Amino acid sequence: MTKVPNPRRLLTRSSWPEAQRIAGALRTETVGGSLLLVAALVAIVWANTPWGDSYFALRDLTVGPASWHLDLSLGQWASDGLLAVFFFVAGLELKREFVVGDLNQPAKAALPVAAAACGVAMPAVIFVAIAGTIGNGESGLLRGWAIPTATDIAFALAVLAVLGTHLPSGLRSFLLTLAVVDDLIAITIIALFYTDSLDVVALLLALVPLALFGFLVQRRIDRWWLLVPLALLAWGLVHASGVHATVAGVVLGMLVPVRPRQGGQQADPQAPPAPSLAERFEEWLHPFSAGFAVPVFAFMAAGVHVLGGGFTDALRDPAAIAVVCALVIGKVIGVFGGTWAFSGFTRAQLDSDLAWSDVFGLSLLAGIGFTVSLLVGELAYGAGSPHDEHVKLAILVGSTLAALLAAVVLRRRNRIYRRIHELEQLDLDADGIPDVYQRDDED
User: pTM (2 decimals)?
Assistant: First the structure.
């Protein structure tokens, strides 16, 4: 009798080292997401009080040298400057995933890449369809097609923390990898589609500090007084070129090596390997990015008029309506549909502990768009413009609806998640590695 091979499984449990890395990353993102939510709420409340004018005066306060074209408002410094740190950390994470993470293995990378690509394409299609249909041919309206394409992993994890949902290791790994691919696509979109004018000379000059930065980090030189000035010069030249300055952050992050230098012998062969330069940079900068840079950007970007007709005006704006529908519906169709289609095409099955309702809940969670969505909204319509104000409100409403729907779906399975979580923590032989990961290794 011929033995039938086990079918390929999707969203299976990751390895123990990968599970540890993901758990650490998710804890940091959860704290950052909580701060982000608080900052956004403070901005909204302040903007709608009798003292709201002081909020907008603060956001629009201009500082910086005009001779260097850096006379920017505080809101612009937050989006162009502080978010460059966020995207630098994103670049480190992207590099790590492509070199030593799941995206380095085609078999594991195929599913999150396919789901992320569909999760970007479908919201864009829905936005264009709705805005084009009810927008009466308004010029420039469709520039916002990329607003609902990005998932805010920090916001999503903050929602999970509030729910107390213990997502299984396979789902957590899928969500994080999906967000990494999503970030890469969003960065590419910003660079290609939201550069209105290009100063080629400034862009070519930016290659000089970028090359020097790359040369130093490849030689594992981490002296801040060498690297920081080069990074600032690269950022300034990219900003002057017309390309959004956050792209410089991504490129700088992608230049940092993620493997420790080969050839050196450790004093203790049994000791764990020394951290790579990328790991050290991420350890230094991730708390600043998640705990300060992104919350400050959220504070500067989220303040919108809700009272006094602001919400009513947003309901009549085709761009705002399209954003809400794209976040709540488009992401679900894209991520869930992409995962289901991949399963059918490869004849793979979900992990035995999971159900398709888990993927559906995770797809709803992917509809939480905030940081990058707010940034793209400003790039598409101009900071402070009527469409930009309405779209910001739409992002908040759409993300909240997606979070509430995800809560309904995921909470139904929380008892099962808790059982899987307890299993993944069980260490009967007390060797520091949960038994289930050792069994998986043996398989």
Answer: 0.88
